[in-house]
Amino acid sequence: MSSGLSHPPPTRLSPILDSDKTAQPSKPASSFWYLQPSEWDVLLLSTSLKLLLFPAYRSTDFEVHRNWLAITYSLPISQWYYEATSEWTLDYPPFFAYFEKFLSYFAPLVDARIVDLQNLKYDSWTVVAFQRSTVIITELVLGAALLRFIRGAVDPPTQRIMSLSLFLHPGLLIVDHIHFQYNGFLFGILLWSILMAREGNKLASGILFAVLLNFKHIFMYLAPAYFVYLLRSYCFSPLGHFQIKSFLSLANSIIAVFVLSFGPFIVMGQIPQVLSRLFPFTRGLNHAYWAPNFWALYSALDRSLLLYTKTTGIGLAVKEAGVASSSRGLIGDTVFAVLPNVQPIHTFLLTVSVQMVFLLKLWLTPTYKSFLTTLILCGYASFLFGWHVHEKAVLLVLVPLSLLAAERQAYFRTFMLASIAGIYSLFPLIFTPAESIVKVVYSTIWLVFVYRALAHRVYEYPRSLAYVVIDTLEKIYVAGFIPLHIVVTALSFMHSGPTVTPVACVPSHDFTCPEPEPSAQTSPGANWQFLPLLLTSVYCALGCVWAFFRLSFVYLKGDMYQGHLNTLQ
Amino acid sequence: MEKQGMKDWIVPGAIVVSLYLKWCLGLGSHSGKNSPPLFGDYEAQRHWMEITNHLPVKQWYTYDLQYWGLDYPPLTAYHSWLCGLIGSWLNPSWFSLDDSRGLETSSSQVYMRSTALASDTLIYLPAVLMFVKTWHVSRSRRTQNLALLTLLFQPALLLIDFGHFQFNSVMLSFTLLSLNFLASGNDILGAVFFVLSLGFKQMALYYAPAVGSYLVAKCIHLGPAEGSRLFLRLALTTVMAFVLLFAPFLPPFSPLSTVLHPITRIFPFDRGLFEDKVSNFWCASNVVLKWKNIASPGLLVKISTVFTALGFAPGVTLLLRTGFQQRAASGKPEHKASPRTSPMLPLLVYVLLTSSLSFFLFSFQVHEKSILLPLLPMTLLMSSSAPTSSTFLWGALMNNMAMFSMWPLLKRDGLGVQYLVMLALWNRLLGYNPFAQPKRKLIHLLSAAANTSAIVIHAMELLFSPPARYPDLYPVLNVLVTTPVFGFCLLWSIKSTVQIAWALQGPGTTLKREGAGLEPKAATSDKQLDKITVRPPLPESFRSQEEEKDRTS
């Protein structure tokens, strides 16, 4: 740690002008805490950009987390999952509650009103500064993991770019530093876990993932890949012999993590209550704003068929309930007018059967790269086919996918497509005009930087006509975001006129999305209010689904593709 | 990363990042937010957009003066009118007469912020780009980029324009454009742009002694025939420009008396010697000498005028003297002066600094924000100098101290975080660390002392509230730290002017060019002369030194 404090003399404009720094040999692992000048630059720059967002718009998630601070600070643990003064009840797993408890020790040092349970919707400068700072500081877990990724990488200069792009990821900026959540911290744990897998420390990888699951259960989307990978490569020898010792140490470690997390609640007999908070079964297929997944396309197809039936009078069977459900995309039971209705079991079966394909391949080739790809594909499949998926879950795909970006051109293009569609699909989270400019400009700068830095490293000549055609279509698709954005902006500008209150068409919090006021729905133009969201959702869904099939194809077809990650077992 | 590829992206990248930063600064609070009944500078600007769009020109300078009456020259009024016109077209409620007072809806704030950003991008950005291309034309690309970054991210200007909310960059960029045209020998356009600067904010008067004496010196330099012709043309265009600026207030558009309204509004001598706490001579000495009790306001105006004139006199004298001497030198037929070149050019930016600093330190009715005026020439000077040179150190010190001197204002505006961020970013960008310098020269000691005091004052302010007897303790301490620094900056600028003037004049005409190379600025314009006049190139040793400095820095 001492060497980290000795600050190397700064150089003028080192990050920009002395780009040859990236070519320096990386420091040995022993000097892990030593930051190169360019890394200090990145840290300073990113922290500065985040600090400037302190006064920016914040969603109700901000109040959610403040309320959790208050709950964990003022109440005994036995009441955490029962407390309901605020509508934003605690609905993350226990580790996250402990995390909030930890943070809440510092809050009264800044302002005692932060942890007052009755002080709902507190939004003074102190609470904003405190909570936003905790996001920035805890995100350093991500930063540390990314640094570690560079230190032991097969190709450090490329990994440096990927680490930089992840640390400055627009998705994290939008969701964490504007909207307000702690994803940077959580993805930091995920990356530490992946890093352990890369370094061959599979037990640590499994334990870290179990820890992560106990912070936020949405990471269950990735669990199948972990399960198969750890079972195959840790509990079985390469020749297929079951290693009981390894299995037991892994199983016991993971059980220990869960006991640590849920133990107090097991003792108090509160498990059913905790689980009912974690998994409320009252939600529909789609979230308020359709996440850009398969069901968005399905719903859009249903709406189009309904419109088609209405205008042409073709006798398709129309279910009246579905007509009323309308395209507003509101929460509740989504009922389709023409297409068959979808039950949770359908989505579950679909997701699992898609995942099985990749898991089978992972079982056969349990390498690090195969694991990483399967991890992404499992998350991707859950995102595309799951029940009531949130648009923010796209980060589960985008973050690990970045690690594969420079592997070869096929991965790079998939990464670019998924990133563009995925990041754009996060835009509706931020709808206030000033911050809308921030999200667009920042994301564009990021995309141009990543593209410029990586594209030439993975460039390959087109090999076939099909390749050229696909390439052209993808370019057209990407270019389409510009007219899409113009149309969406124009439409929202028309509807945010002085009379209509901006129906915060925004999924306000992970698991709760209140119905908008009925009056807002009946106001003129209400039917068109959701058109920008619908367009965004459908257009992004096209890209997301296509990128998924692209990645699946590359992975399943994959053995002839040799990138540098293949050197890792 | 491929070096060459990335280098092409430095300029566009820096511009886009600076735009993004400026916008992010605008997410924060502005002056007088949520503080009725009068609000602050933000509301003043918004109010002017409102009245210029709803009232006939005659009433612009007379309407309800108690509520932010217009007190800037007509170009600001026209600019406000244009911004208000576009804004009213987008949403009339933003600028409806009287009803919109104190309006702070999020959409109107976004519009106001975008007017500041658009004005800055349309005028300041081209002016800076042009500055780099004209003044640093013979420097390496790296130096040019560095100069651009130094100017684009200048923290004090960004915080006032995009945090506090004003349009200072417009006034400054008109002056900068004027400098660019003077450097390329286009004196007429230079004069016109300077009039525009004056016509936007009367504060540009701080520069007037320098620009005026430069032009006069140039006329002297050109000799009686050529010089008087230039003088006449300059006089004519300047008067014409002023007449055009004030045209709507003059016959036949308005009765002649109308023109008195803007003029009386622009020069308010009925206010105090200084406002709030400002880091100048009067406020600092007021701690010991209560000027109000010592002298009448009328006398104070006179004293402050004399002090100011004494402050800029050396610079002006040297400019005129150089012009005179160079005329003598070029009297011989083989040295016939060309109207395109000017030996006084290396002095110009230094004299601008001297003149604006003496106005800031000594003149009547100075605001803390006026430090932006001397900061411009100082930042221009440092923009191309090596990070170990004293010019760079003085520039960095003055920029940081200017930020510190505006801290009470920024704190009041709720821009504390932005203040810290911009300071940290800019200093890191330049690689400036006041504490890592060897303590050899005055500037090193001064930097260390001033920065340490600033940090100590910040820490004390954070930890202890001021004693009840002295509620203004921290602002006063602030003034007592920053005023001496600005005083030293003034002395340094005079010293540098003397050195360069001496070098230009030189013991003999043959040595003068090398002497001018002591300062990078002088060297730069000297090389421009190289290009234009047929002269032997600079000695090899000097040139290679200069280039080496570029490479190693």
UniProtKB/TrEMBL annotation, chain A:
It is a multi-pass membrane protein. The chain crosses the membrane at residues 174-195, 207-227, 247-267, 345-364, 370-389, 410-431, 437-455, 476-494, 530-549. One of its GO terms (biological process) is protein N-linked glycosylation. Its EC number is 2.4.1.-. It holds the Pfam family Alg6_Alg8. Belongs to the ALG6/ALG8 glucosyltransferase family. It is an enzyme of class 2 (transferase). One of its GO terms (molecular function) is dolichyl pyrophosphate Glc1Man9GlcNAc2 alpha-1,3-glucosyltransferase activity. Keywords: Endoplasmic reticulum, Glycosyltransferase, Membrane, Transferase, Transmembrane, Transmembrane helix. The keyword Transcription regulation does not apply. One of its GO terms (cellular component) is endoplasmic reticulum membrane. It is found in: Endoplasmic reticulum membrane. This is Alpha-1,3-glucosyltransferase. It comes from the Eukaryota. InterPro entries: Glyco_trans_ALG6/ALG8. Pathway: Protein modification; protein glycosylation. Residues 1-23 are annotated as: Disordered. It catalyses: an alpha-D-Glc-(1->3)-alpha-D-Man-(1->2)-alpha-D-Man-(1->2)-alpha-D-Man-(1->3)-[alpha-D-Man-(1->2)-alpha-D-Man-(1->3)-[alpha-D-Man-(1->2)-alpha-D-Man-(1->6)]-alpha-D-Man-(1->6)]-beta-D-Man-(1->4)-beta-D-GlcNAc-(1->4)-alpha-D-GlcNAc-diphospho-di-trans,poly-cis-dolichol + a di-trans,poly-cis-dolichyl beta-D-glucosyl phosphate = an alpha-D-Glc-(1->3)-alpha-D-Glc-(1->3)-alpha-D-Man-(1->2)-alpha-D-Man-(1->2)-alpha-D-Man-(1->3)-[alpha-D-Man-(1->2)-alpha-D-Man-(1->3)-[alpha-D-Man-(1->2)-alpha-D-Man-(1->6)]-alpha-D-Man-(1->6)]-beta-D-Man-(1->4)-beta-D-GlcNAc-(1->4)-alpha-D-GlcNAc-diphospho-di-trans,poly-cis-dolichol + a di-trans,poly-cis-dolichyl phosphate + H(+).
UniProtKB/TrEMBL annotation, chain B:
It is a multi-pass membrane protein. Pathway: Protein modification; protein glycosylation. GO terms for molecular function: dolichyl pyrophosphate Man9GlcNAc2 alpha-1,3-glucosyltransferase activity. It is found in: Endoplasmic reticulum membrane. Keywords: Endoplasmic reticulum, Glycosyltransferase, Membrane, Transferase, Transmembrane, Transmembrane helix. The keyword Endoplasmic reticulum applies. Residues 543-553 have a biased composition (Basic and acidic residues). It holds the Pfam family Alg6_Alg8. Residues 513-553 are annotated as: Disordered. Its EC number is 2.4.1.-. The chain crosses the membrane at residues 110-132, 144-165, 230-250, 299-324, 344-364, 371-394, 442-464, 476-494. GO terms for cellular component: endoplasmic reticulum membrane. This is Alpha-1,3-glucosyltransferase. It comes from Pterulicium gracile.
